[in-house]
Amino acid sequence: MSTRTSAPQSRPASARGASRRKLKLRRRRRFSLVVLVGVLSALFAFVVVPRLPDAVRELALPLSHEDIIRQQASAKELDPSLLAAVIYAESRFRNQTSSAGARGLMQITPRTAHYIAKLSGGTEFEQGDLATPQINISYGAYYLRYLLERYADNTVLALAAYNGGEGNVDRWIVEASQSERAFTVDRIPFVETRAYIGRVLDARQRYRQRYGRELGL
To answer: Cα separations (Å) of 202 from 19, 23, 59, 206, 214?
Structure first.
């Protein structure tokens, strides 16, 4: 039995070269990945992040059809931020129909629409018209102007009537007068109407701050 040990076989030069090429290729890929991540991070930091507050605000406080809002506010002598705030409180700018049959951006019922058409001297009206933003906002703006004039430009009373009905507001005013106390929001018996008024007034201020240019303020 021989006691000699054989020397280890060295790898062929071609195999060593292939291994080095694979290692270099992996390093290049890792380096390219690091560079790509760095570029994407920079783009996110300088392009996306500064726009996030605006995107979040637009989701929380949407605005569309601002050209119609400006036009109708001017025609009806309304504060455009108030008109936008009513649309926000009614539908959040979604063209929809409620379970009570109120339709469109300003959530006008067919009954109220017929009433508005009669007040404005309109002779032709179809329920499907309320799904059209131009007509819906026009009707809602007309009704809001009517309510403001009816209640001596008292925005709180006009909003209470828009949400709770003119008959209820008239009754609350009489009851307040009979008890010799001022009519205030906290005395409105409808929880929904109290919350509605607060929501509109808060939204009006936010629309003024966020969308002053778009609303022509």
So the answer is: 69, 63, 16, 6, 18
Q: What is the pLDDT of residues 192-208, one digit of tens each?
A: 999 999 999 999 999 99
Phi and psi torsions of 44, nearest 5°? -60, -40
Q: What is the domain partition of the chain in residue ranges?
A: 14-60, 66-210
Sign of CA dihedral 155, 156, 161, 163: positive
Lookup: tokens for 199: 């929501």
The helix or strand, by DSSP H or E, that contains position 63, with its residue range, turns out to be none
Pick 66-210's CATH classification: 3.90.78.10, 1.10.10.60, 1.10.530.10, 3.40.50.150.
Answer: 1.10.530.10
**Residues acting as catalytic residues:** 90
Q: Which residues, in sequence order, are bridge partners of residue 103?
A: 97, 108
DSSP code string of 85-132 = HHHHHHHTT---B-TT--BTTTTB-HHHHHHHHHHHT-----GGGGGS
Q: Is the model's pTM score more than 0.85?
A: no
208, 210, 211, 216: CA torsion to nearest 10 = 50
